[in-house]
Design brief:
There is one protein chain. With about 375 residues, the chain is α+β, with helices and mostly antiparallel strands. The chain folds into 3 domains: about 1-95, Rossmann fold (3-Layer(aba) Sandwich); about 125-180, ATP-grasp fold, A domain (Dna Ligase, domain 1, 2-Layer Sandwich), CATH 3.30.1490.20; about 190-385, D-amino Acid Aminotransferase, Chain A, domain 1 (2-Layer Sandwich), CATH 3.30.470. About 30% of the residues lie in helices and about 25% in strands. It contains 14 helices and 18 strands. An 8-stranded antiparallel β-sheet has the order 13-12-9-10-11-14-17-16, sandwiched between helices. A 4-stranded parallel β-sheet has the order 3-2-1-4, sandwiched between helices. Helix 6 (about 110-120) packs across helix 10 (about 230-245). The chain is globular and about 60 Å long.
């Protein structure tokens, strides 16, 4: 099989080689030099390096270097920043895969909520995306403004009132590609798994500590796995059906007040941060391998044993901290049986990122119960300090 991989996410998370025998198949990685630099030298492959500014014109830059005559069998694109573009590339190369319209629903935050609303049984925040809707009236209280196709919480702003949000959008950004959304004051959860032939598999639920929105302002963010109840299962099944997700990994975020799930957003791709690792630690399942195996119709390698422990993580942002040396980890944290691993890095990243290799500090923890895990992670947030 001749396989083209649009390589953007870290190789150590994707581990394409778990499923794809690089000796048996012809594998070509295409991407920016900064992404291709993490490919293992021991593997057999070809690589195509794109110019540094290619992210702005990814489709045309890729198609300038590959064509239908190359006879690729498949194109893999597992990153948030390439899944839409991959639809156009596949179409030009004559390859099978999801349509642009299918993927757009799980990238456009307005279209996905319209699908959720049409379901008729799911709760979601009130929202508007056009100036004429302002005249019809909005709501009172805190309001979020966000890009319709944003990722990693970029471009999101919290306003104290609906009117302040309207003024911000009309004065600063304009309504093009923006929406306003009712702020929901409830704990935020994320749900991660994979869909195979329309069936949800390997589902886990996790509760955020802090939130991606707070992470924007320099507050550490994390999450811990919780018990998967029937409310969560029914909610995810309905969301998957409403959005028409029939295959691939998913990352769905929702508020939960103890009784009802309130949809926030969804993505038909892997969750970021340390979710791949913590999910595998709990279930024994490497989600990228399941998706790659299904997409390429290749055997799934044996998975590691599942654990009875619950796992979680914390990320300390790089865009508000100088370096890892400003963070002091007390000995009581380092010697705790709850601490699985931690990673410091001297890398400097002045942009918003969830990549632990570019952060001053990240850690993974475990405990026998979600409550114990939550308490330990909160202890970390209290005791790990700057100096």
């Amino acid at each position: 099989m001749k396989i083209l991989i649009l390589h953007q996410a870290p190789f150590k998370k994707m581990r394409y080689d778990h499923v794809i025998d690089h000796q048996q198949h012809q594998v070509t990685y295409i991407g920016l030099a900064k992404h291709l630099s993490d490919l293992p030298e021991a593997l057999r492959y070809q690589k195509i390096v794109l110019p540094p500014a290619s992210e702005q014109n990814l489709v045309s830059e890729v198609l300038a270097r590959v064509s239908p005559s190359d006879d690729y069998s498949s194109l893999l694109a597992l990153s948030e920043y390439g899944i839409l573009e991959a639809c156009h590339i596949r179409e030009e190369l004559g390859l099978a895969g999801p349509s642009y319209e299918q993927i757009e629903v799980v990238r456009d935050k307005v279209k996905m909520k319209q699908r959720i609303a049409a379901r008729g049984t799911l709760c979601y925040p009130r929202f508007i995306d056009a100036p004429e809707q302002v005249i019809q009236g909005g709501w009172t209280g805190k309001t979020i403004s966000k890009p319709r196709d944003g990722a990693s919480s970029q471009g999101i702003t919290l306003h104290e009132s609906f009117s302040a949000a309207v003024e911000y959008v009309e004065d600063k950004t304009g309504w093009n590609n923006y929406e306003l959304e009712e702020f929901i004051d409830a704990p935020l959860y994320h749900f991660d798994g994979v869909v195979i032939a329309g069936e949800v598999q390997h589902l886990l639920a996790s509760r955020y500590i802090n939130s991606p929105l707070k992470y924007l302002s320099g507050v550490p963010v994390g999450s811990f796995q919780v018990v998967l109840n029937d409310t969560f299962r029914r909610f995810i099944d309905e969301v998957i059906a409403a959005l028409g997700i029939v295959r691939g990994c998913f990352h769905i975020e929702a508020f939960y007040d103890g009784e009802t799930c309130i949809f926030l957003e969804a993505a038909n791709r892997l969750g970021g941060a340390r979710i791949v690792e913590t999910h595998r630690s709990r279930t024994g399942v490497h989600l990228p391998s399941v998706e790659i195996s299904d997409y390429l119709a290749l055997p799934l390698p044996r998975q590691q044993p599942a654990s009875t422990h619950y796992f979680g993580f914390l990320l300390y942002p790089a865009h508000h901290l100088l370096d890892s040396q400003t963070l002091n980890i007390p000995e009581g944290i380092l010697s705790s049986p709850h601490l699985v691993s931690f990673q410091r890095t001297g890398a400097q990243a002045d942009i918003l990122t969830y990549n632990e290799d570019l952060l001053p500090l990240s850690l993974i923890a475990r405990a026998e119960t979600p409550h114990q895990l939550q308490l330990f992670l909160q202890r970390c947030l209290t005791e790990i300090s700057t100096h």
